[in-house]
Each structure stands twice: as C-alpha cells, then as structure tokens.
Specification:
The protein is of the alpha/beta class and 422 residues long. It contains 17 helices and ten strands. The protein has two domains: 182 residues, Beta Polymerase, domain 2 (2-Layer Sandwich), CATH 3.30.460.30; 141 residues, Rossmann fold (3-Layer(aba) Sandwich), CATH 3.40.50.720.
Length: 422
C-alpha cells in the first residue's frame, strides 16, 4: 500500500475546468463510500474547494483510482489527463502539508483552506474512510500547519480570497466607500467579506441568503439588511457592487433575472464579483450592457502582489515540510514492519492453538475425561508456545549475546529478581 494524492488545482486548471471537477461537501461521504465499496482504496479523504479538487488515498493501484476520479466528471478523459497531477508517498505527504499551510493556495498563506481540510477529514471519518494510517497522517498534517503558521512569516498578516476581492473592488471603484454592497451567501467567505468591508464602507451591507435566519445571525457582526433568495433581484437592484460566494452547484444569478434588474436600474453600472466555484453568476450575465462581471481568477494581479516579501518565508516552510514528510514516511515504514511482525507472530500462535484444539476435540469426542483433556491441552500449548523462544535464548546465552536476554526481559515484561530484592 502507498499514499497517493491526485487532483487538479488553480495552477493546472482554469475556473471553467475547476467548476466541472467539483465534489460538494454534502455528497463527499457518498463518493468515498463508493470508492471503498469498489475496493479501490483502503483509506481516503476528498477535498474540494474553489481552488482545488484533490483525493488523498492509501491504495495499491493508483491507475484504478485515477480512472474512478475521472469517471466522476463530465470532461473527456484526454482533456482531464492534461490537468491532473499524481504524487506518491513522501511527495504526497509533502503536498498535503503544503495545502494545509496555505503554501499551495492561490493566496499564499491563506488560512481558510486549513478549516476546509479539517472539515473534509471529519467527513471522511464519518464515512468510515479513515483508519490508522490516515488518522496518524492528518494529525501530523494539522500539527505541522499549526507550527508553520505560528513560527513563520507565512502566517503573518493572513490574506484571503475574500480580502483580495474587497481590494480588487476598491481598485475598480474609486467611490467604493459610499457604495451600496450586496453579498450573496452566508458561508465562511461571506463572513470574512463582512469583516473586511466593515472598515471600508460608510453604509452597512445587504446579505442575501437562502436561509434568512442565518443571514440575520451573520449580520450581527457589523449590521446590515437581510434578504431571502426570493428577494435577491430587489436587493441587487439597489447595489453598486455584488459579491457572491455560495456553495450552490448551479448558478443562483442568471441572465433573465439580471436583464430585469438592469431594466429597473435604468442601466446604472453594476459590478459583480463572483468568488464561488462552481460559479454563482451565469457567464451570459457579462453580455448585458453596463454589467462588469469578474470571477476568482480575475484577482490574480492582487494575489501575485501578495507573494512579494513572503516567498523567503515560504521557502523555509517548504524545507520544514520536506523534513517532516520524510520523517513521517520513515516512521510509517517502521510501523509497517512492526505490524507485519506482530501479525506473523499472532499467526504462529493461532496455528499452534488450532492444532492442539483439534486434538482436544477429537479426544473429547472419543469419550476422554474433560479435565484430563484440558490439562493436556494447556500443557502441550504452553510447551509449543515456549519452545522457539527458549531455544533462541539458550543459544544466545551460549554465544554470549546477552543483549538478547535483556531484550527478552523487556519484551515479555519479566521482572529482575535482583532488582526486586533491592
């Protein structure tokens, strides 16, 4: 068995491709159960965010896992093969650690991905897709992420896609401070948007969400007006800037609705910044006059500027991860040897036990005295159990290999009579 990671991210695939290779969090357990039911992997975690869709798994044949992954999308296999990357063992562990630390994110050092990975891990545990290896792996991953964020400049002044989106809007709209801003969605990204916007706006935001109750709860952060999805058009009609970040699998803003909105606005210019993947705003909305539609990939210039001055810290963090990932794989190899030895020893004992049990059953069937049969079974089993260790210890003593005797005392938890007397 080896640890593999396969997937696509913002470096290999455009947003148009990423939204076609997306695994909704509410269906992750179904995907994992299907993967395990087909016996393609023994353990697995599936992470899908706006920047990546990645499968982490322990498997024998990665080719079959890749086939399964590709079958979950509607993209032609030849096209998908050009986007997909696969890492194994040490490289896979290092990649997972880099993702958790925000080193592989579109925004270097962003912290939101760690929470998303923890949620993905929790979903995998619930789905029964995590056992000893991945439990150990992800505890190490989370520990490394915490260490890097608290001891390096990677975690200093954290930047997120949400903060980049706000900065982008301020660049595009000089009078941003007096703008009417509408947010669509009440998830983690919208919560970050509200916090960032509070410092830059003269008026409270309007929040549109499927659950009005959740929208009202989120607005306690900085105040504002809440709308249900049924009032979305009315909310957008009053807006200068709209940020959208829902978890919907299909667009929540379409061209037909926006045509009516723009008519009601009398073609007053409107900026839409869609930072969801899959996208919330239908691409055809960009065809409408006086509508400026942007997506997460349009924030690249601001995000690239964030890299300046932090690459040195990232290099140091990657070196730490390289050391940690090598140590984890080495430890895992040692544990594999220990597990194999324990299983082999248990197998020997069980085989001896079964042989003696068969003899005992035959004697009982022939009418032998039960007490005598039990005594004979216990004696024979004990003698055979101790035979090989006794022979090895006698030979070690004769050859002067007394360290083996010390190890045997430790292994079998044998107390030293001389120590007890003291």
């Amino acid at each position: 068995m080896s640890i593999f990671i396969l997937g696509i991210n913002h470096k290999t695939a455009s947003i148009g491709m990423r939204e076609k290779i997306y695994f909704p969090i509410d269906k992750v357990s179904l995907y994992l159960q299907d993967l395990l039911a087909r016996e393609l992997a023994s353990e697995a975690v599936l992470l899908s965010t706006c920047n990546r869709s990645e499968l982490y798994c322990e498997a024998k044949e990665v080719g079959r896992v890749v086939d399964w992954f590709c079958a979950q999308t509607t993209l032609p296999r030849p096209q998908l093969d050009t986007l997909l990357y696969v890492h194994q063992d040490e490289a896979a562990v290092a990649h997972i650690m880099q993702v958790a630390c925000g080193l592989d994110s579109m925004v270097l050092g962003e912290s939101q991905v760690l929470g998303q990975m923890k949620e993905a891990y929790s979903e995998s545990c619930t789905a029964g897709a995590v056992a000893s290896v991945f439990h150990r792996l992800f505890q190490q991953v989370f520990s490394v992420a915490k260490e890097i964020r608290t001891t390096s400049a990677v975690g200093a002044c954290p930047v997120s896609v949400a903060s980049a989106a706000v900065h982008f809007a301020r660049q595009q709209l000089p009078a941003f401070a007096s703008a009417n801003v509408v947010l669509i969605g009440a998830g983690d990204t919208s919560e970050l948007l509200i916090r960032y916007l509070k410092a830059h706006l003269a008026t409270p935001v309007a929040l549109v969400n499927r659950s009005l109750e959740k929208a009202l709860a989120m607005l306690e952060i900085g105040g504002g007006h809440a709308f249900g999805f049924e009032d979305m058009a009315r909310a957008i009609t009053r807006a200068d800037v709209v940020f959208s970040a829902t978890g919907s699998a299909v667009p929540v803003v379409n061209k037909a609705m926006m045509t009516e909105v723009m008519r009601a606005r009398r073609d007053k210019p409107l900026m839409l910044i869609d930072i969801a993947v899959p996208r919330d705003v239908e691409l055809a909305v960009a065809e409408l006059p006086h509508v400026a539609l942007y997506c997460i990939d349009d924030l690249k210039a601001i995000i690239d500027n964030n890299l300046k001055g932090r690459e040195h810290a990232a290099v140091k963090a990657r070196e730490m991860i390289r050391v940690k990932s090598m140590a984890f794989i080495a430890e895992l190899g040692t544990l594999d040897k220990v597990t194999h030895t324990i299983r082999a020893y248990r197998g020997q004992i069980e085989e001896i036990c079964q042989v003696e049990l068969m003899k005992a059953r035959q004697q009982l069937q022939q009418g032998a005295n039960a007490v005598e049969v039990l005594d004979a079974f216990a004696y024979a089993f004990t003698q055979k159990l101790l035979h090989a260790p006794s022979v090895q210890l006698r030979q070690a003593g004769a050859e002067g290999r007394f360290e083996l005797l010390r190890f045997a005392k430790q292994l079998f938890a044998i107390s030293d009579p001389e120590v007890e007397l003291l």
